[in-house]
């Protein structure tokens, strides 16, 4: 393997800066992740965009925040600003399980080692920079900043926190996918415009002096939220705020949002319209090495990189609007799809990787099968305020044709250097069930399913029914479990037709708002009846800026303000979780006693059988659930 010159990566040290012949750095990016120069890693994307606009960029990756802070000082003062991100995950989700236990590993660190970023990394990094360089602006970005841009409930401290801008003392925040606002910020910064004057850019948030007039820009109307202090006093006002934030985040022609926080006003400008094909291609077609920085070689592999190094992300966004998921909150509900040309070019790049053996691990996206899907009449989308395009029913204006995706799969398959291209991302199965999705006009869903099942399943197919209770599923913004059964029937028929043995792996969540103990027992019975013996269930974690998080904290649904029961104590959560493991001997007596107390002998019979039958029979196959897509 030919060693690439170190200057192929953005610099991590002053030596690398000097090798480029620079006498100063324009922008310094500080990240909680190790630096992987790949389009799946936000710091690389942002850094390459800045480079493409002619800026000299350096990266401080996973700085030590406990010592003399030399990492933060190594590049000195940048000419324009610091950019700060916690990394590809919220640092608290990265650090702790749903039970608030400290995780023993970190997928974004060499060797998978934990302990290389602080809790609330965005706040910690920014405060350090503000102490060291008080006159240098700090711009926040990434999922942690994006989803904490307004008053939010923090599960780990069990309290409401103000916009992250308050505690971080940063100058501005970019929310969502940052390419469009970033390019605007860079143009103005080059002209010498200070951050304090960048007030008319879409998709940014900032704090404004409460005693100074807030000007109107771009003919935006303004919606005022209940203040942070009102939210602290009244949980219902906090819940009502969330509905406004979610609706405005998913509109093409959105309003500006303001919120009083102490003696300041938080201002959140409306988002940009979703990137078109040319714009998103531009981000993916930048000159990435697609490799981790060479400095990490002796420290071991970076697990997150190992997982995606032979994968292709074909689109962004998700129109599912699931109550527990942060994807649409961060990436938006409208799909930004890359061109075929851009995707096929990336596939070619992957085949040149020295370790490539002919197998693409994932042709996917947030939901694998939403590529090129959008409104048939965009003027209807422009007026839409719904957080989901497919709940409670699929919008009649949504083009759900799988034809472009099927054709792209075939073109990837035709590459002589590709032995197999798998779909590793979760598939949105409800789009493929005709009883739920009435938009299957030319039978293209069946063609897609045949192509997917026979050519692109790596041993098993991941789908996410999430629950079996219709009441819980409604709160989750997911379809009835009966549609999963119809999908499974269709999938099994294709398996049988082609003599394949590729099990379905369904994902489920316990302790979600609206889920009672009996619902979980029934879930276990329903999945057992379908032949599943699953090994893990995900315990619900209330993450910022989700409907489910608001319900968990406030006790009411933000759209109806009606009470919703949620399991909160450790005992309640463990009780829900245990039903999933009905086949484990150590839980059988507990399940029997518990269900008799709940007066559900029918579920005892379904889960455990009569005492004589308990040990007879086995399920058809087992499935291993080992972690859900980004939530």
From TrEMBL:
Coiled coil region boundaries: none
The keyword Metal-binding belongs to this UniProt entry's keyword annotation: yes
Cofactor(s) listed in the protein's UniProt record: [4Fe-4S] cluster
Protein name per the record: YgiQ family radical SAM protein
Record InterPro entries: Elp3/MiaA/NifB-like_rSAM, Methylthiotransferase_CS, rSAM, rSAM_horseshoe, rSAM_sf, UPF0313, UPF0313_C, UPF0313_N
Record bears the keyword Metal-binding: yes
Cofactor note text: Binds 1 [4Fe-4S] cluster. The cluster is coordinated with 3 cysteines and an exchangeable S-adenosyl-L-methionine.
Family: Belongs to the UPF0313 family.
Keywords: 4Fe-4S, Iron, Iron-sulfur, Metal-binding, S-adenosyl-L-methionine
Pfam family, one: DUF3362
Region (Disordered): 609-631
Start and end residues of each Radical SAM core domain: 304-584
Residue sites binding [4Fe-4S] cluster per the record: 318, 322, 325
Organism in which the protein naturally occurs: Spirosoma soli
Database matches in Gene3D superfamilies: tm_1862 like domain
HAMAP family found in the cross-reference section: UPF0313 (MF_01251)
């Amino acid at each position: 393997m030919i060693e690439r010159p170190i200057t192929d990566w953005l610099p991590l040290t002053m030596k690398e800066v000097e090798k480029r012949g620079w006498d100063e750095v324009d922008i310094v990016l500080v990240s909680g992740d190790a630096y992987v120069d790949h389009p799946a890693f936000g710091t690389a994307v942002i850094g390459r965009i800045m480079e493409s606009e002619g800026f000299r960029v350096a990266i401080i990756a996973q700085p030590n925040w406990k010592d003399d802070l030399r990492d933060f000082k190594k590049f000195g003062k940048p000419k324009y600003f610091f950019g700060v991100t916690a990394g590809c995950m919220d640092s608290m989700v990265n650090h702790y399980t749903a039970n608030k236990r400290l995780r023993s590993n970190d997928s974004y660190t060499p060797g998978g080692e934990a302990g290389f970023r602080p809790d609330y990394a965005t706040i910690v990094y920014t405060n350090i920079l503000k102490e060291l360089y008080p006159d240098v602006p700090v711009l926040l970005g990434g999922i942690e900043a994006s989803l904490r841009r307004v008053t939010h409930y923090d599960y780990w401290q069990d309290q409401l926190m103000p916009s992250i801008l308050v505690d971080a003392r940063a100058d501005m925040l970019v929310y969502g996918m940052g390419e469009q606002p970033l390019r605007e910020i860079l143009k103005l910064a080059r002209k010498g415009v200070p951050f304090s004057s960048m007030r008319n850019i879409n998709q940014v948030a900032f704090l404004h002096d409460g005693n100074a007039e807030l000007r109107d820009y771009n003919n935006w109307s303004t919606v005022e939220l209940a203040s942070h202090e009102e939210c602290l006093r009244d949980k219902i006002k906090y819940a009502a705020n969330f509905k406004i934030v979610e609706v405005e985040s998913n509109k093409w022609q959105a309003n500006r949002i303001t919120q009083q926080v102490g003696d300041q006003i938080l201002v959140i400008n409306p988002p940009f319209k979703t990137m078109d094909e040319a714009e998103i291609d531009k981000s993916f077609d930048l000159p990435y090495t697609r490799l981790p920085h060479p400095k990490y070689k002796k420290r071991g592999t970076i697990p997150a990189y190992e997982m995606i190094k032979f994968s292709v992300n074909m689109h962004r966004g998700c129109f599912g609007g699931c109550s527990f998921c942060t994807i649409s909150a961060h990436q938006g509900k409208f799909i930004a799809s890359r061109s075929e040309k851009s995707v096929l070019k990336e596939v070619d790049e992957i085949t040149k990787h020295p370790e490539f053996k002919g197998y693409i691990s994932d042709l996917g996206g947030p939901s694998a099968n939403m590529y090129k899907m959008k409104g048939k009449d965009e003027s209807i989308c422009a007026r839409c305020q719904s957080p989901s395009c497919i709940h409670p029913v699929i919008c009649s204006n949504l083009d759900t044709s799988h034809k472009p995706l099927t054709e792209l799969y075939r073109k990837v398959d035709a590459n002589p250097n590709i032995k197999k291209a798998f779909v590793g991302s979760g598939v949105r199965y409800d789009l493929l069930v005709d009883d739920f999705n009435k938009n299957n006009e030319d039978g293209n869903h069946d063609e897609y399913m045949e192509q997917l099942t026979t050519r692109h399943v790596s041993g098993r197919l991941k789908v996410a029914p999430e629950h079996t209770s219709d009441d819980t599923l409604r709160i989750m913004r997911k379809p009835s479990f009966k549609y999963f059964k119809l999908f499974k029937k269709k999938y099994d028929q294709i398996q049988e037709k082609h003599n394949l043995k590729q099990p379905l792996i369904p994902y489920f969540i316990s302790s979600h708002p609206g889920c009672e103990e009996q619902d979980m027992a029934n879930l276990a019975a329903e999945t057992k009846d379908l032949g599943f013996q699953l090994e893990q269930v995900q315990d619900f974690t209330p993450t910022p800026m989700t409907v489910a998080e608001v319900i968990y904290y406030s006790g009411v649904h933000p759209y109806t303000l009606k009470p919703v029961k949620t399991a909160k104590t450790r005992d309640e959560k463990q009780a829900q979780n245990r039903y999933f493991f009905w086949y484990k001997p150590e839980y059988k007596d507990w399940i029997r006693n518990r269900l008799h107390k709940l007066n559900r002998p029918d579920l005892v019979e379904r889960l455990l059988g009569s005492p004589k039958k308990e040990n007879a029979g086995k399920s058809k196959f087992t499935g291993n659930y080992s972690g859900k897509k980004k939530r």
